[in-house]
Specification:
alpha/beta; 4-stranded parallel sheet; two-stranded antiparallel sheet; 6 strands; 7% strand; globular
Length: 366
């Protein structure tokens, strides 16, 4: 929501209300109000969410077990807040491309050096032409903008590698990683390498063929509320990210909290709180939680920060083979893999049990 209209993100002091803690408190108050208004005070409530929504769902159950009776948390990276997890996202994304074709992943890794070597005026002009970029490229900083734009497109491809056509972020074909790799599945170099990578990333940015040129900094995820997430990532959602260029298809880029904090101060005027999530919600969920199902997909880079092992009988971790970002929470599709059908059945069993247990508690209280 935009409580202050189109100017919500322009006045930084207004953003103090933008936090997971406030969101959960709002949900708790709203659910209590709605149940009282409709005469459903004793009706069980189950929380659902995927990605950030999955994090909220799990934390909702942990913080307000008196309001929600269980939670389905799909692709929820609630363990992504330590430096030890920093390289997992990029490693899993890389595996997706390498699994499709070893040459595909190797070509992507080789492309970064090829791009960064093109710094002369003539080379920058050629780089712009090869990738079909709208803006003029005039300096080294523009080269890094190209690199970051490509990185975003490739990691989003890995995230939404669904077995059917989908438009969660951008319209894409079924198995978009395989489609992207079809352009670079043999060793390439020079202009041919960059032309192939351009075709690969276009599976994300331009599968419809209607985009005339690409704008750097536009990654197709605006519908997710990027400004809001960027602000939260600078306050409470501090998720270390890094790559080493060996176990992944990217380049050596260690986690640098100092640089991260400086950028947050520059952009939003805030100082990150890197430990706040665990201070607020806890980090030992065997002590703090119950009645939560965590699901994670094999292909989803966010799996690296998810709960992938069951913590107790009522804190269950499910693995979706060949599953991308919260595939289990998407509508059923004839092309769904068997694994996601099994996971959905288990989630349903847990939901039924939670509801039955909630009604049983109510009968005992009468």
């Amino acid at each position: 929501s935009l409580p202050f209209g189109k100017d919500t993100y322009k006045v930084h002091s207004q953003l103090a209300w933008l936090s997971s803690e406030q969101a959960l408190a709002d949900y708790a108050v709203f659910i209590r109000h709605l149940k009282a208004k409709t005469g459903c005070e004793h009706s069980p409530v189950i929380a659902f969410g995927g990605s950030y929504g999955g994090m909220l769902a799990s934390w909702f159950r942990i913080k307000y077990p008196n309001v929600v009776d269980g939670a389905i948390a799909g692709s929820a990276p609630i363990l992504q807040f330590t430096a030890e997890k920093a390289e997992r996202f990029n490693a899993i994304a890389s595996d997706d491309f390498w699994k499709s074709s070893r040459a595909c992943g190797d070509n992507i890794r080789a492309s970064w050096g090829e791009i960064r070597a093109r710094t002369s005026k003539t080379a920058l002009s050629k780089l712009r032409s090869l990738f079909g970029i709208c803006e003029e490229l005039t300096e080294a900083a523009d080269v890094e903008a190209v690199v970051n734009w490509l990185y975003n497109g490739l990691t989003y491809l890995a995230m939404v590698d669904y077995p059917y056509e989908a438009n969660f972020l951008e319209p894409m074909p079924a198995w978009p990683v395989d489609k992207a790799c079809s352009f670079i599945n043999e060793p390439l170099a020079g202009d041919a390498l960059l032309a192939g990578v351009k075709e690969a990333v276009s599976v994300y940015f331009n599968s419809t063929g209607t985009v005339q040129c690409f704008k750097l900094g536009v990654d197709g995820s605006s519908s997710l509320g990027d400004d809001g997430w960027d602000y939260q990532a600078c306050t409470e959602m501090v998720m270390p990210m890094a790559s080493n260029g060996v176990d992944d298809i990217f380049w050596e880029n260690p986690w640098n909290y100092t640089a991260y904090a400086e950028e947050c101060e520059k952009t939003w005027g805030v100082t990150p709180r890197p430990n706040w999530v665990y201070e607020n919600y806890g980090d030992d969920f065997t002590l703090e939680g119950s009645n939560i199902v965590f699901s994670n997909g094999e292909l989803d880079p966010w799996r690296g920060g998810g709960v992938t092992k069951s913590l107790s009988e009522s804190m269950v971790a499910l693995y979706v083979e060949k599953g991308a970002h919260h595939l289990d929470l998407r509508a059923s599709n004839p092309k769904d893999p068997t694994s996601v059908k099994i996971v959905r059945a288990i989630e349903k069993e847990n939901i039924v049990r939670w509801i039955e247990e909630a009604y049983a508690r109510h009968r005992q209280e009468q």
